[in-house]
Protein: 2-dehydropantoate 2-reductase
Amino acid sequence: MSQVYILGCGAVGLLLAEKLAKEHSVTLITRNLSYQAFLFVQGKEQTHLDIKVTTLDQLSEKIHTCIIPVKAYQIEQAISDITPHLSDNANLILSHNGMHDLLSIQTQLAPKHALFFFSTSMGGMKPTPNSVIFKGHGLSQLGACNQIAKKRLNTLYQTWFATHFDPIEVVDDINLIRWQKLCVNIAINPLTALYQCQNGALRAPKYARKVLNLLNETCEIARLEGVELQLSEELTRVYHVMTLTAKNTSSMAQDIKLNRRSEIDAICGFVATMAKRHSRQAPQNERLWQQIKQKEQV
Ligand code: KPL
Structure:
């Protein structure tokens, strides 16, 4: 049994906690101790998560493995909060939607800190702050973001992810999986947020042109960034995720419904900004970015 910490208690954090606690000792690091017990709901079954809960102030030992499944706009803060508590050779696993500058994170880490990225489209919904409803397996991918992580990737995968995360893929090219996940989030999140529908509803023919145009544009901008995505493969992946998570309400649809800040800046906003950097335009992403920003302000 190994020890893993999870920073934050969002839907993905709680879904990961449930899987990892089957074999390991899991500690959730929360802002305060308002909630000591967390519930996992699947179909008609409810179980209490077999985990410990603590705060950063109460941490009594250095952390060796920490998963950081926070929103894209919370990453900087999360990294600066956690780094003083890490052991010299800690493993950090980021898991978020959208794009974030990995170099700016890397500069805050010690030389032997390994940085990984875990991408998942596993579905979860939080009806209350201390419960999560499991909504579908989705696809997961794991990759290394720095040299030291490349050396530890296989061991990290075997220790934490090999058993309970099927289907999961270990990938060599971290940039590729970040762009692939971005394509999934671009095709699903903003449209489900605007139309307040479940992921599976986007498979209807009336959305097909929008999905195709968005992905086509995203593949073009990825190419300018040196990442070769095949439109047909991204379309297949996106429709596969829509099917695997058909009954799920995307995180952005939930954020907009509950008047919370969304991750649109790191999703469509990222593509539109990259396009400008190359003196190009990305009107499909730009339009959705602005539409969701307006909704955030309502
Ligand atoms: O990542 C997701 C999210 O909701 O943020 C998807 C893949 C759309 C699954 O719901």
User: Anything to note?
Assistant: The first strand starts at residue 3 and ends at 7.
